[in-house]
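User: Design a sequence. Structure:
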């Protein structure tokens, strides 16, 4: 797990170094992470048991995905994932600029930062929702079921 998501950062430092927020709008469903995937791309085959690869390695050495190369794998907690890292290639910077431009044009980014979801239903609520295996054969929700078991209000 460490190689795949935080290869160069000590796990105990993820909060302190700002990779993870103590209270995140991700858990409320009002913030999400985006990536650009070309329309003609093919989803790589997943091989169970395959060793996890360093998410900050060159694209050809990382776990395969079908997204544009932004310098790191998706969800990578690494100094290389920082927006203005000098180690990025010109193409990786161009891909990041494309993503930022698309987000700005869609109204997701304003004033240089990610804008909160407007009219958010639960702006001060953090949910605790476990993910469980689903037993039905529902084609859309075949593998997962989400069951709310509690929520934490932080006014």
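Assistant: Done.
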């Amino acid at each position: 797990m460490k190689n795949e998501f935080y290869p160069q950062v000590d796990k105990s430092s993820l909060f302190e170094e700002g990779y993870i927020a103590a209270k995140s709008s991700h858990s409320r469903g009002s913030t999400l992470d985006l990536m650009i995937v070309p329309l003609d791309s093919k989803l790589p085959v997943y091989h169970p048991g395959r060793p996890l690869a360093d998410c900050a390695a060159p694209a050809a050495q990382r776990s395969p995905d079908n997204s544009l190369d932004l310098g790191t794998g998706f969800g990578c907690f690494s100094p290389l994932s920082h927006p203005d890292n000098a180690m990025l290639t010109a193409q990786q910077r161009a891909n990041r600029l494309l993503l930022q431009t698309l987000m700005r044009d869609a109204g997701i980014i304003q004033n240089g930062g990610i804008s909160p979801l407007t009219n958010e239903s639960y702006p001060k609520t953090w949910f605790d929702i476990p993910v469980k295996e689903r037993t039905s054969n529902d084609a859309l929700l075949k593998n997962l079921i989400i069951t709310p078991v509690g929520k934490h209000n932080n006014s």
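The beta strands are 109-110, 113-114, 125-128, 131-133, 144-146, 150-153. The chain has two domains: 1-119, 124-155.
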